[in-house]
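task queued by scheduler; priority normal; single chain, no ligands, no partner chains; default sampling; output format set to C-alpha cells
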Amino acid sequence: MGTLANADTWEEIGIFAREHEEFLKEYIELANGIPSHDTIQRVMGMIEPEYLEQVQNKWHEMLETEEMQKIQKVISVDGKTMKGNAGKGKKGNHIVTAWCDDYGYSLGETKVSEKTNEIKAIPELLEVIRVKGNVVTIDAMGTQTKIAEKIIEKEADYVLAVKENQKNLYKEISEYLNDRKFLENIRKSGGYKRTMEKSHGQIEVREYYQTEQIEWMQEKERWKSLKTIGCIVKTIQRKEKTVTEIRYYISSLKEDIELFSKSVRQHWSVEIMHWHLDVTFKEDANKTLDKTAAQNMNIIRKWALCILKTVNFGKKQSLRLKRYVILNNPEKYLRMILEM
C-alpha cells in the first residue's frame, strides 16, 4: 500500500503506515501498533522471495480473463542490476524478469548468483513459469542453444536476438538479410511489414522481414526447432540527420510477419518496465543493502506497477501522477484498488 502511495524508502513506508494506522487496521490486526521502519525492513529480509511471488501471482490470476488466455502472448526475458543494493565490495542484486506486456505484469523473476550470470539463470526461471503456447523473447546475451532447447521443451516458441556474440550465426544472417535481391523476394512472399510513427519531433520507420528460406544455413542444425530468421530495419528521421539500425533474429515461429513483428516490438516492454522501476519508483536510489529485502521490494514494485497500469482514476495520467493521487487520498483509492 505504501509503495502504491508514493512511498519509496523504508522511512517513507513507516510514515505512511503511522499516518494511516486506523485505515490499515481494517485489513490487518496491528495489535501492537505500527512497527518501526527498521522492523518492517528486517521482516522483509526474512520473507522468502518465492513466497512473495506466489502471493503476487494469486493477484495476477484474479485479473486474467478467458479472452486473455486465448491470445498467444509475448513473454520478454531480461535482467536488471539494482545499483543501490551494491556495497562493500559486493555487487547489487541482478534480477532476471519474465515480463508479459499483454498482461502488464511479471510472470516471475530470479536473482542471479554473484558467481554466475544470466545465461545460467534464464533456464532456471523458464523452468518455474508458465510459457506453454506463447512466444519467449530474449536479447542477444540469452541467445544460447541450451536456452532455445529449454523454451521448446516447455512447449513455447522463441524469438532470439542475434549479435556478434554468436559470430558465425550473425555473419550468415546479416549477409543474407543485407542482400537487396533476397529482401525483395521476402517482400513478395509476404514476410514483410512496414510501420511509421511520429514521436518527439522525429519520424520512426520500422521494416520487419521474416523468411522460412533457411535451408542454406550451416548453423541451422545447432538450434532446436529453428524455422525462420528475420530482422528489423529501424530508420529515425530527424531534421538534421537520418539514422538507420538493423537488428537480427532467429525464431522457432513459422512465417507469420504479424506475430514476428509483435514479438520483436514487445520485447522492449521489459526495458520500459525497468525504466519505470528507476524513474517511477526510484529503485536505483534505494540503498537497501539486505539482499533479500531488496529483492522483495523489487517484486513489490513490479506488482505495484501492474496495479497502476490497471487502475483508472477518471482521466489519463502517468504512473507517477497516479502514485501522487493515491498519496493524497489513500483510503479512497486503495479501497478502490482492493475492490477491483
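post-processing summary
- The first helix runs from residue 10 to 19.
- The chain has two domains: 1-139+267-340, 162-253.
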